[in-house]
Structure formats: structure tokens, C-alpha cells
Amino acid sequence: MRNPAAENLLEFIGKSPSCYHAVENIRRALLEAGYRELREWEPWQLREGGRYFTARNDSSILAFRVPARDFPGFQMAAAHSDAPTFKLKENPELADAHYLRLNTEPYGGMLMASWFDRPLSVAGRVMVREEDRIAQKLVALDRDLLMIPSVAIHMNREVNDGFKYLANVDLVPLLGGPESGGKLSAMIAEAAGVRAEDVLGSDLFLYNRQPGVFLGASEEFIASPKLDDLECAYGILRGFLTAQESRSVPVCVIFDNEEVGSLTKQGADSTFLADTLRRICSSLGRTEEEYRMALAQSFLVSADNAHAQHPNHPEYADSRNCPYMNGGVVVKYNANQHYTTDAVSSALFREVCLKAGVPVQTFANRSDMRGGSTLGNISNAQVSVNTVDIGLAQLAMHSSFETAGALDPEYLVRAMGAYYAGSIRRREDGEYLL
Ligand code: ZN
Predict the structure, then answer these.
(1) Distance 259 CA to ligand 1 centre (A)
(2) Which end of the chain has fewer CB atoms surrounding its CB within 10 Å, N or C?
(3) What's the gap in Å between 230 CA and the centre of ligand 1?
(4) What is the pLDDT of residue 236?
(5) 232 CA to middle of ligand 1, Å?
(6) From the CA of 305, how far away is ligand 1's center (Å)?
(7) Residue 271: its pLDDT value, please?
(8) C-alpha of residue 78 to centroid of ligand 1, in Å
(9) Which range of residues forms the domain containing residue 175?
């Protein structure tokens, strides 16, 4: 039988062709669960027992509950809403006598080969003129629209010996014939419900049209676009929504722009998290010192997918710290602190998983490889708390179609449900209580 959490995850990803759509779907789930939206430009009046969320740039979103005025700290988890893709440039039409192609640039570090020879389309947001105001509209052209065709083997017999892809030459998507001029902007305007001349600005990205699937002899795997990191976004959100009440303030935050370094107004390197935590405290009548005291009793789970050992290339993995798909939640370690996990955060988080009956695996880079980085250490520069880096094991990270374990989403939901029900506190002698 197909795992229901994995099915729900694939449905969520299918409805999230851009980070704006992912955040809109999270917003809807929160509203459905009785959460109230707080706007950053309005005053906040929080009450005990209240459930709230706030968004920044409509591409990052943060939800929290207020258990009581005297909460000890924040029980937080973070994931990211964005994924590597190609962004449409301004003036995207590249026309010649026979073809009309689209001018794009890479967003993040993708596996370029995975974008060839498959139906693609366009999704994101546009800003439109509406009478006396400028409004945002989400658009997703729900049709097979674009193709990035490979060069035939007959024209480059050496291609299978290794090829350097150039984004401006090899990865330019084909929209149509020479008569296609103006059609993309017409489609975008129609999707937004406005005239083409009323579209004033846009953040539009390519997306892979292939829907997520179950695969494997026993359907033990899933494959889909954007498993990094919507799989973790889904897992921490479901855990947050289904958890028993905690004494601390549970916080679930999904950041944009992880794939391009997080240094934006809404990324993990912004003030979004710090501003929100501070406002929660001040709205509940807490002093700056009490805010600092709360941070010292807070914890962050930085959730971003991990590399499963590759079936064809086991040599790239560390021999002892190599996770596998369907093996449970992965705790990531790095001596240079690209992952934040240390003895304290590892011990506390593993204990939560153990109590929840969720298996834990470990990941470390092979010692001669630098590996990737993620949200945890970046967020720690803004809000410095005990942090553990975790994820779920997957293959082909940053492909336009990635593979993961069908059982793992449920493991993460269960682990996060247990985590959010807890409250990590310090005692007078410095020991930690779960
Ligand atoms: Zn990621």
C-alpha cells in the first residue's frame, strides 16, 4: 500500500510549481487549521492559546502558537521553499527566422542535464496594475509549453564522454515558431486576469511538468521535482500542525532563497525570524532581557534533505555515515560547522526521535569533500540557538526530478510531532530537560 504521507507530499509538490505557490499552499493549510494571519505592517495583539502565522515577500512563511504568557522558549524548525531552476529574464523573447526561444538564467546550482527533453512550463508571480493599486497575482501556466532539446548524438559523438553545459547556449528553452512573438506575455496576462500592458513586474521560473510518482519493485521510492526541500517543508509543517501542545512556543518557518545563499530580505540570513520572535515577546509584554532568556532555552531543527548513498557510486559517501532511503531521519554532521549539529543538539534531537520510535541515521561528507551547506548555520548568525541539521535521504539532489524513500516523509512527520510537543529547557545546573 502506498504510504499516505508520501501521497500527500506528492500532491503538495504537484500544487507548488514555484516557491510562491508552495507558500500559498502552506498559508491555506494554516488558515484551514484555524491560524490567523498577522501582517508585518500592522500591530500585533497576541493572546494565550492563539495560533498565528506571518509571511514575508509571500515566499517565506512562519507559523507559531502561544501556549502561555510565561513560555520558556521557542521550539523551532526551518526548511526552504525554493529549488534550483531557471528564471525568465526581462525581455525574454529570443526570436530568429525559425524559432522563438526564451532568455533565462540559472537560479541556484542545478544538475543541468536533468532539464533536457522533457515538457516544461512557467510559474511564479506577477505584479499588475489594478485601478489605483498594484497587486500580486500567482501564475502557473498549466500546460506543456517549453522544451530544451538535446543535440543529437550524431552531431556530437563525444557527448557521453563528458560535456560542459552553457546556460546561455545549451539550455535555452524553445517556445515555438517565429509567429510566437508576444504569446508568452499574453498567456501570462491571461493567467493573471489582466491586460499584457498592466503586467508591471514578474518573478517567473521554469518548472518540470512531470508529476511525482511512486516507483520501485514494491513502490518503495518516490520521484518528483523539488523533494529538496519541499519534502522537509511538508514534514515539519505536518508535525507542527498535528503535535500535542508544548510549554514552549512552537515555530515552523519556511524560508525562500536557500539555493542562492539566503542573503535576501526574506531568506534565512534576513531578520525575518529574529524580527518575528522579538515581536512575539514584545506583544506578550516581555522585556528585551526576557527575550534573550527565551532564546537561551530555544532550539532549532534545520531540515533540509541529505544525500543517500548512491547505488552506482557508493565511493562518494563516507563509509560509516552514509544514510539510505527509507532508513528514517538523517542527522548531519560537519566539523567545519556547515552543519550546525554538535554534541548537545545531536543528543537532544536523537532522544526526541528515540522516544517517538523514529529511526535515526547519520550523514557526514567524505572527509576530502566540502559538501553543501544549508539553513542552520546561516539562521544561527541571526538567531543564535542550539541547532541540529537534519534531513531525509534522497538521490540526485538538484536534479529537476529527484528520488527519495516513500516511508521517510511519515518518519519526519512523526519525529517533528514529538519534537513540537516537547519543550527543551535548561535547569539551574545547566542540564537540559526535554
Ligand atoms: Zn535544500
Answers:
(1) 7
(2) N
(3) 9
(4) 98
(5) 9
(6) 6
(7) 95
(8) 11
(9) 86-208
Q: What is the CATH number of the domain that holds 126?
A: 2.30.250.10
380 and 232 fall within a common domain: yes
Q: Are residues 112 and 76 in the same domain?
A: no
Q: What is the pLDDT of residue 407?
A: 98
| Residue numbers in the chain where pLDDT is lower than 70 | none
Ligand 1 centroid vs 41 CA: distance in angstroms? 30
- State the greatest distance between any 2 C-alpha atoms of the chain, in Å, as a whole number: 77
In whole angstroms, what is the distance from residue 166 CA to residue 118 CA? 18
Whether 275 and 393 map to the same domain: the answer is yes
Residue with cell 526541500: 229
Residue 295 grid coordinates: 532564546
Q: What is the pLDDT of residue 241?
A: 98
pLDDT attached to residue 376: 86
Phi first, then psi, for residue 416 (nearest 5°) are -75, -30
Provide the pLDDT for residue 289: 96
Chain mean pLDDT for the chain: 96
Element (H, E) at 188: helix 183-192
Query: Does 429 sit behind a cis peptide bond, omega within 30 degrees of 0 on the bond before it?
Result: no
- 59: CA distance to ligand 1 center in Å? 15
Tell me, yes or no, whether 281 and 409 share the same domain: yes
- Output the pLDDT for position 372: 81
Grid cell in block for residue 221? 521510492
pLDDT at res. 226: 98
Distance of CA 58 from the midpoint of ligand 1 (Å): 19
How far, in Å, CA of 232 to CA of 22, rounded?
12
What's the confidence (pLDDT) of residue 364?
Answer: 95
Q: What is the pLDDT of residue 395?
A: 98
Q: Tell me how far the alpha carbon of residue 256 lies from the centroid of ligand 1, in angstroms.
A: 10
**Per residue in 213-246, is it b (16+ CB within 10 Å) or e — as a string?**
ebeeeeeebbbbbbbbbbbbbbbbbbbbbebeeb
Ligand 1 midpoint to CA 364 (Å): 16
How many angstroms does the Cα of residue 295 sit away from the middle of ligand 1?
A: 25
Ligand 1 centre to CA of 196 (Å) is: 35
Instruction: Answer with the one of 177, 208, 239 that is the final residue of a domain.
Output: 208
Distance, CA 106 to ligand 1 centroid (Å)?
A: 16
What distance in angstroms lies between residue 160's CA and the mean position of ligand 1's atoms? Answer: 28
pLDDT at 381: 86
CA distances from 432 to 280, 347, 423 (A): 24, 10, 10
